[in-house]
């Protein structure tokens, strides 16, 4: 029998952000001047779909914001699409910029604080044709893009994400080669890594040059959002465990580890560089955006190479997976947050966390188990200021197309009306946001047993 005192609600700090995260290309629709759009037309998406009109958020933002408000959300992460604001080189589209302003104003009217991502992987096609981030003019064009976004909507943004998951374009685009430009070219990967570090530093400097405060009068908050995982050996013991430990370290060091070391030191970290200094990079983050989904099990075996090439994940027997094939490992969230705290010592926002689940049961358990770990991290001293769930409406999941459902609001891409229908997980998140806590009553109402015994089930530490 657990004493009643152990059932204390998991309360989050006052002013905590509750909301969802999205990215322009995945929800807006008709991002026709982008490199991803061009790639999709080649029939490259696994389920044969294309982003097309996506969720038509471009036109239906008001309906979505109103629904977010009804669902108790007080924040929203979204992105600006460079391919819309500069569809042709050197020819910015004033209407697109004005439309983003309308959209952000509407979000704010609905009580949503704004986290804006300046680049979420997608590039204008004209830039992709010149070599993408490797193009000679890429950084100059990027700085101009950042300036025009800040000029247009800078007064409406509370939190700036310069780049989303910068290691994904490097690794999926230039090492594994399954995202555009689909190259397996390690030297190009190193060049793009350095370019992205420069792009981040430029955006960080520009934001601080152009803005003196956030909308509420607080400091300008600019940072990046990293894709973080817990990386561990696949085997628990024995020779294979011993051999997999250095592999796990190498995976961590060559993904988020390399990025983080570079931002802390201001120098291009191995294995992508030899320590060349980048102006303005050292310490260029006021907060860290943490995207956490899964644990990676480093497995030495025949399928290691094919897993890397396909983005597949090894999963030890008995470990539950999401429909992406990603391990469900809530304690990894705690460890990642603790590691980011030790690395940067800065405030953190959860800028993404969620799971692909075509039902909605797994998502509710996933959500609660992961929120319990965020709470655990806060209790252990991590300055986490908000939780932005991935994602609001079911949307375009890159090379997986529309098949994978990450939303708390159902939306069928083929429905001509694109109706939005909140799932039970939306009401779960609403109740948590309203209470600013995970309470035993909320767990009982939405996913009984998800946190048994309260607050953390065995194996969750
Ligand atoms: O949909 C993506 C998002 O664009 C970046 N982070 C991971 C999500 C789920 O795969």
What is the N-to-C order of secondary-structure elements (H for helix, E for strand)? EEHHHEHHEHHEHHEHHEHHEHEEEHEH
> In CATH terms, what is the fold-level topology?
TIM Barrel
Count of helical stretches: 16
What is the spatial order of strands in the main beta sheet?
Answer: 2-3-4-5-6-7-8-9
The whole-angstrom Rg is 21 Å
CATH superfamily: Glycosidases
Beta-strand share of residues: 5-15%
Low-confidence stretches: 1-5
Overview of this protein structure:
There is one protein chain. By secondary structure, this protein is of the alpha/beta class. The protein has a single domain (10-446), classed as Glycosidases (TIM Barrel). It is 40% helix and 15% strand. The protein contains 16 helices and twelve strands. It has helices at residues 24-27, 35-40, 57-70, 82-85, 94-109, 125-129, 138-153, 167-174, 186-210, 238-254, 256-265, 303-310, 330-344, 361-379, 424-435, 440-446, and strands at residues 10-11, 17-21, 75-79, 113-119, 159-164, 222-233, 287-298, 348-352, 384-390, 409-410, 421-422, 437-438. The strands form three sheets. An eight-stranded parallel barrel has the order 2-3-4-5-6-7-8-9, surrounded by five helices. A two-stranded antiparallel sheet has the order 1-12. The protein has a two-stranded antiparallel ribbon with strand order 10-11. α14 links the parallel β8 and β9 (384-390). α7 packs parallel to α9. The longest helix is centred in the middle third of the chain and has 25 residues, at 186-210. Mean pLDDT is 95; it is low at 1-5. It binds 5-hydroxymethyl-3,4-dihydroxypiperidine. 5-hydroxymethyl-3,4-dihydroxypiperidine (IFM) binds next to loops.
